[in-house]
Amino acid sequence: MKIIEVKDYMEMSQKAAEYIIEKVCNQPNIKLGMATGGTPVGMYKKLVEDHQKNGTSYKKVMTFNLDEYIGLNGDNKNSYRYYMNENLFNHIDIDKKRNTFIPRGDIKDYNEECLRYEDLIDKHGGVDVQILGIGNNGHIGFNEPGTSFQSVTHVVNLASSTIQANARFFERMEEVPTQAITMGISTIMRSKEILLLVSGESKNQALHSLLNGEITESFPASILKNHPCVTIIADKAAIAGLKIHI
Ligand code: GLP
Predict the structure, then answer these.
(1) What angle is formed at CA 1 by the lines to CA 118 and CA 38, rounded to 5 degrees?
(2) What's the 139 CA to ligand 1 centre distance in angstroms?
(3) What pLDDT, in 10s, does the model give residues 111-138?
(4) Which domains does the chain have, with CATH numbers?
(5) Is position 136 annotated as part of the catalytic site?
(6) Is the pTM of this model over 0.90?
């Protein structure tokens, strides 16, 4: 794993955007794995700025999002479809209808949707660069502690700490979904490259466990140590006090 230490959230967002822009310029039909949550918002903003200023084109880019809440349709402002449209897709020249994929959280047969999504990724040759954030409990996508490293796209019951953490985006606690569809750990590990973004003091412990802890299903992100091509961009607050043994 390669670690790039940056000053703060702004610099992390800038560096991450530069990383993605370079990949898109070198491979215009790249398949990007997208993440949601607070962490990548700044990076998406920088990608939009770059598109407007320098014209980086996403016409041939395909995107596959990590996860989606069950029970929310794409018009719901807390759905990850809505998040992606608002933060990125509506502001760049990507073919939103044909080339952006997110698991559907609003259909009846979730298990069928999981199979379809996993198959869709494979059919397109897999993800080239997967962007990831990390949950405080080490979750990646919505793969909570205890998820099998062999898992593919599946339905999850969210950990109560994740529900609490995500409640900040909802008006009332009762509105926070308790289930989601997520790429599995093995889906994520099949991506050719991984870009993990970590910012802020609240992620310090998670980064510490990732870098210095053992590889265990109780801390899902720890599996990333077995991936051949991981880049972590972390800011000072996230790295503070860490002795790094990779
Ligand atoms: C959510 C998402 C993850 C994300 C994590 C961290 O649960 N499903 O993909 O990495 O939260 O979120 P944040 O970046 O807001 O800390």
Answers:
(1) 60
(2) 8
(3) 999 999 999 999 999 999 999 999 999 9
(4) 2-133+152-194+223-239 (3.40.50.1360)
(5) no
(6) yes
